[in-house]
Every structure is written in C-alpha cells, then in structure tokens.
Amino acid sequence: MANLTGKTAVVTGGNSGIGYATAERLKADGATVIITGRSKERVATAAGELGVTGLVADVGSVAAISSLADEVKAKFGKVDVLFVNAGIFELAPLGSISEEMFDRQMGTNFKGAVFTVEKFLPILNDGASIINLSSINAYTGMPNTAIYAASKAAMNSFTRTAATELAPRRIRVNAVNPGPVVTPIFGKTGMLEEQLNGMVAAVQERSPLKRLGQPKEIASMVAFLASDEASFITGGEYNVDGGMNINPLLG
Ligand SMILES: NC(=O)c1ccc[n+]([C@@H]2O[C@H](COP(=O)([O-])OP(=O)(O)OC[C@H]3O[C@@H](n4cnc5c(N)ncnc54)[C@H](OP(=O)(O)O)[C@@H]3O)[C@@H](O)[C@H]2O)c1
Questions:
Q1: Distance (Å, rounded) from C-alpha 101 to C-alpha 146?
Q2: Does the pLDDT of residue 206 top 90, yes or no?
C-alpha cells in the first residue's frame, strides 16, 4: 500500500473501469478522492458506491474543465494527485476515418488531457504527481486504431515535455501504458460480441501471461506513481501489459 494520507486526488473518468478501480485504491491508501465523468447519474452512483465526491465535467469542453477546477478549488483547496484517465476507444480502418471521429477521439483523449493539466496547474501543490493514462497502442500498429493510437502517442510526448517544464515545482509527470484490461470500454465500440470474443482470444494468445489485465492492476501502478515512494520518477512511461509490448514470438 502507498501512503497517501492527507493528499487530495482527482480522477477523471472515475465512474468506470480503470478510473473507478484507481479511485477505490487511492481512497484505501488514505487520499481524499474526487471522481469525474460525463453523466450525472453514473458519476453519482459510482461516487456513492466508493464513498468519494463525484463531479460532472465533460473533458471534451475546455470550459467544463475550467469550471471543474474552480469547483475543486472551492471545495477542496489544492490537489496533490491528478489522474488524467478519461478516454474513449473508437475503431475505424483507414479509408473510413471521419472528421467527427477524429475530433471526438483527439478531443477527449489528447486535447482533454492537455487542458485537464492546464486548468489544474494553478491548484496543484508543488510536489504534486500527474499520471496520464495512455496505452501500449501508442507503440503498436493494431488495425483500426490509427486515431486512438495517435491520441495516446501524443499524450506520451506531452508527458515528457510537461515533466521537464514542471520539474522546478517538483511536480512529477508520468504516463502509464496499459495493455488490454477488462473494462466496459470494449463494449462501447459497437463491436459484435463475436468480434469482441475473437479480439480477446487473439490478445490472450499473444500475451506472455495469456490473459487480460484487471483494473486493479493498473491502479497499483498509479497509486505507486502518486505516492512519495516514486519521488525520483518523472517523465517516464510504464507498461502494465502482461508482457504484451515485448512482442515475443510465442509457440
Ligand atoms: N481497458 C483497456 O484495455 C485500456 C487499455 C489501455 C488504455 N486504456 C485507457 O484507460 C482509460 C480508462 O478506460 P477504461 O478502459 O477504464 O474505460 P471505461 O470503463 O469506458 O471508462 C472510461 C471513463 O472515461 C470517462 N469519459 C469518457 N469520455 C469522457 C469525457 N468526454 N469527459 C469525461 N469523462 C469521460 C467515462 O465516463 P462516462 O461514463 O461519462 O462515459 C468513464 O468514466 C482510457 O483513457 C483508455 O483509453 C484502457
């Protein structure tokens, strides 16, 4: 367990999947936790289950992120841990990439991440920890993921520059690259159950550990990076992927 006693943590996209599990873990480690999401009902339900504060903010809107930061400041003061996690996963092959899909994915996953950091910067304590939830897709050529992968690659690049620029304030900035993790995200792609099962089987076959990850396994890495145990770690990227990204030739 990391010790986060006395720290305030914001988890964007905390009403589901990895964000939900991480909010649970950060709270168990002693932090005061605020989760965000788009839907009032989903945020309220998750906040009630977790025993944390839930605030509604669509990261697709810079004005909404700005209001969120104002609300957090008014209710909690300064923030020590910013988990930039809200994201969407949409599939389309080259030749079928629409402008709307490009704008939605880049707008949520990259622009949303950049402006979450921008708007929270004034209320981050010196010595705070920012963790950007990226993906091993940033480094793979998985079919149909060109825009999703690019949005995460952009996030990793942003992480490195932010780490350099924020170091004078001792704010650490790191990225976590999960492999496939069991969350509702895949069910939101519109893939048929048969296609989803096929993808899961193919992924498991390629992974050295022969399974998908669980949200709690990403939360452990985030909790570590959030804590003072990671005090000399900034500008890094950490794969939590069951070995998938080493791309071994498996028999
Ligand atoms: N699961 C995986 O295999 C995997 C692998 C690598 C990386 N990731 C990344 O992990 C992050 C979390 O995904 P997940 O797998 O936990 O999926 P998930 O269960 O679908 O959760 C996504 C969360 O992001 C929120 N969100 C989406 N768009 C938003 C917006 N515009 N404004 C505010 N909140 C928004 C969702 O809230 P709503 O309920 O309002 O939609 C939800 O809370 C994403 O960045 C994803 O790209 C996931």
A1: 11
A2: no
Distance (Å) from CA 108 to ligand 1 centroid: 10
C-alpha 245/C-alpha 243 separation (Å) is: 6
Residue 89 in contact with ligand 1 by CB distance below 6 A: yes
pLDDT of residue 250: 65
139 is catalytic: no
How many angstroms is it from 139 CA to the middle of ligand 1?
Answer: 19
Question: To the nearest whole number, what is the mean pLDDT of the chain?
Answer: 96
Q: Is the CB of 54 under 6 A from ligand 1?
A: no
CATH 3.40.50.720 fits 8-183+215-239, yes or no: yes
| Residue 24 pLDDT class (50, 70, 90 cuts) | very high
pTM (2 d.p.):
0.97
Domain ranges of the chain: 8-183+215-239
Q: Select from 81, 80, 57, 60 the least CA-distant residue to 69.
A: 57
| Ligand 1 close to Cβ of residue 222 (< 6 A) | no
The residue behind tokens 């939590």 is: 240
Q: How far, in Å, is the centroid of ligand 1 from the Cα of 14?
A: 8
